[in-house]
Backbone:
């Protein structure tokens, strides 16, 4: 089997610091990690290969330091890693990102199975996976929380709002996965050494048959036109210490007024 | 062949029918779309596809639709994203639209990206605000960005249609207006119903599961509850006032509570009449899921906790003392009142 995993390097923090003027993120001093859901995708790919044999290839588009995350993926069990990097890719929205990823997958493929996290913790759009699948013209599923191989394809369980859907998808297909899929293991020491020593492939814009006009910011159909801080504020009646009881009575009154109690 | 000329701009809402009923987000979007349509002199189409619908369609018009486009076919029982994408694209080919909106549900967030990829156009996920830019008539799509720390307004200047998904409960359900509209059944080519994907089954979480988004009262616990067992306190309080239990992301990640209870940026948006948060710090990402609640009560031992900034009533102290007292007070009321 040939499996590809798409991964993204994201900031390692919940408390992002912002440049108040520009409304952009201050990246200095903040570590980076593999997007947590992508770890699930790597682990799912690794388990597949363990059972079925084959190769696990990881791909990431980003600045040169994304290399670190790719090496970590190799430490976790990936066989090959491809860094997709070029200034021309900068500022890509989900469409322009998917455009590049799908061309790289065509170039290095075909793959039986492509896996990715359902969404990244920074952008949170969840769009790149389905967009890549659509551009490749292969069936895909999302919100996948269980995968079982069946004949020439997979049976997946999708976690949706009010329950679970089960679907069969034939190979080749793409799946975006959730975090209850499996328990990714920490890389072993020998894995780390392998990751450190691995030779990564680098793909740049000139390796891909994409017109300049479809790359990066220029090739992105969407534009950020304004960034602002959400303003949320209410006037809070505070109760503390011996006043708590009063506060509770106040809540009871409010519940009655609202016909809840 | 296109079924009409483009004289007036159209907004298409890709609605959603699940288990034979129209999801509330469809009405929320029809309402918003009609507001937007008024600003561009346009009209609203709502697209629905299903195998069976157990309710009248009039409310869709009353919410703001000018026309209902529907596909009824026995093969549309279980969700199939490949078929949904084909239907969406075919509907847009027949009835071109300037703007396409769908709920940011697990279905909408699956189908719309694939459509946008094939249409070579932009798509903005999880919008919390939509408007029209007066000078250009462009759709302004506002969504939380950079982990919810800022809001970004996004445009699709030259690609069409302009596409967005919107989180359920972001816009209010519109007050019904007495009006009707056109209904057109789409006759689609056979190919629209062929798929490589085979949907096998659907299983409900549990029979007594109710979506917390549909409740008037939500009682949420955070890390301050310390232990999963302590969620029982919240359940008790919630039960007394007919509410459901919500949770913050760390409590879900720690598996104290299941994901369908998570409220916030990467969970659900709720907009209940009454929201109580206990042991919740009030991170922006959590606020993104509950700030539109009508009345908010917060219990936290830290007087500086961010949750107090958006609460109407704050009880500052130990939740393990306050919650039992609150529960006792509610119980007393219930006994006295009945
Ligand atoms: C991209 C992104 C998406 C996110 N999405 C979500 C999301 O959807 N939902 C979400 O909730 N979070 C989300 N988060 C995480 C968010 O940033 C916060 O980390 C999280 O909301 C904090 O949860 P908490 O309030 O339970 O825990 P904490 O921040 O640890 O707060 C615990 C609170 O309990 C109080 N407390 C402790 N003991 C007591 C006691 N005995 N009595 C009273 N009070 C007590 C403390 O004072 C504290 O304020 C997201 C983060 C990112 C970066």
Residues:
């Amino acid at each position: 089997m040939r499996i590809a995993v798409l991964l993204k390097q994201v900031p390692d923090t919940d408390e992002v610091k912002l440049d108040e003027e520009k409304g952009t993120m201050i990246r200095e001093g903040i570590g980076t990690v593999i997007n947590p859901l992508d770890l699930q995708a790597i682990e799912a790919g690794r388990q597949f290969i363990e059972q079925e044999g084959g190769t696990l290839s990881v791909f990431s588009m980003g600045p040169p330091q994304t290399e670190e995350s790719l090496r970590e993926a190799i430490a976790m069990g990936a066989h090959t890693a491809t860094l997709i990097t070029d200034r021309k890719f900068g500022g890509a929205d989900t469409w322009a990102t998917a455009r590049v990823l799908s061309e790289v997958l065509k170039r290095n493929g075909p793959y039986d199975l492509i896996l990715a996290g359902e969404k990244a913790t920074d952008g949170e759009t969840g769009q790149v996976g389905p967009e890549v699948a659509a551009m490749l013209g292969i069936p895909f599923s999302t919100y996948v929380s269980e995968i079982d191989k069946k004949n020439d394809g997979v049976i997946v369980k999708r976690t949706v709002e009010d329950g679970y859907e089960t679907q069969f998808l034939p190979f080749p297909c793409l799946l975006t996965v959730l975090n209850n899929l499996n328990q990714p293991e920490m890389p072993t020491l020998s894995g780390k050494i392998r990751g450190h020593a691995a030779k990564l492939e680098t793909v740049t814009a000139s390796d891909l048959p994409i017109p300049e006009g479809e790359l990066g910011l220029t090739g992105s159909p969407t534009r950020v036109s304004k960034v602002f801080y959400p303003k949320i504020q209410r006037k809070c009646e505070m109760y503390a210490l011996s006043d708590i009881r009063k506060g509770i009575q106040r809540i009871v009154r409010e519940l009655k007024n609202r016909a809840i109690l | 062949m296109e079924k009409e000329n483009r004289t007036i701009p159209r907004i298409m809402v890709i609605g959603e029918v699940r288990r034979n009923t129209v999801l509330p987000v469809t009405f929320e979007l029809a309402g918003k779309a009609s507001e937007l349509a008024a600003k561009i002199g346009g009209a609203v189409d709502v697209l629905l596809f299903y195998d069976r619908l157990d309710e009248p369609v009039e409310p869709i018009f009353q919410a703001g639709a000018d026309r209902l486009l529907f596909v009824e076919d026995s093969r549309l029982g279980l969700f199939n994203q490949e078929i949904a994408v084909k239907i969406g694209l075919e509907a847009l080919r027949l009835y071109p639209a300037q703007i396409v909106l769908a709920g940011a549900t697990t279905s909408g967030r699956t189908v719309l990206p694939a459509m946008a990829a094939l249409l070579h156009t932009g798509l903005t996920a999880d919008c919390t605000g939509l408007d029209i830019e007066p000078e250009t008539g462009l759709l302004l799509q506002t969504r939380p960005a950079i982990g919810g720390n800022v809001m970004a307004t996004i445009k699709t200047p030259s690609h069409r249609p302009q596409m967005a998904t919107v989180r359920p409960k972001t816009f209010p359900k519109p007050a019904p207006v007495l009006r009707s509209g056109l209904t057109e059944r789409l006759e689609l080519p056979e190919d629209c119903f062929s798929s490589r994907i085979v949907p096998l089954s659907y299983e409900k979480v549990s029979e007594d599961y109710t979506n917390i988004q549909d409740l008037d009262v939500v009682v949420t616990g955070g890390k301050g509850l310390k232990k999963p067992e302590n969620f029982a306190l919240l359940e008790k309080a919630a039960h007394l006032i007919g509410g459901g239990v919500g949770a913050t992301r760390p409590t879900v990640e720690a598996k104290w509570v299941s994901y369908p209870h998570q409220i916030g940026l990467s969970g659900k948006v709720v907009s209940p009449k009454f929201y109580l948060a206990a042991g919740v710090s009030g991170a922006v990402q959590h606020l993104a899921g509950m700030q539109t609640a009508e009345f908010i009560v917060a219990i936290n031992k830290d007087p500086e906790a961010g949750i107090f900034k958006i609460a109407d009533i704050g009880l500052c102290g130990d939740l393990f003392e306050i919650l039992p007292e609150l529960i006792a007070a509610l119980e007393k009321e219930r006994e006295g009142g009945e």
User: Anything to note?
Assistant: The domain at 2-214 of chain A is CATH 3.40.50.620 (Rossmann fold). The radius of gyration of chain A is 22 Å.
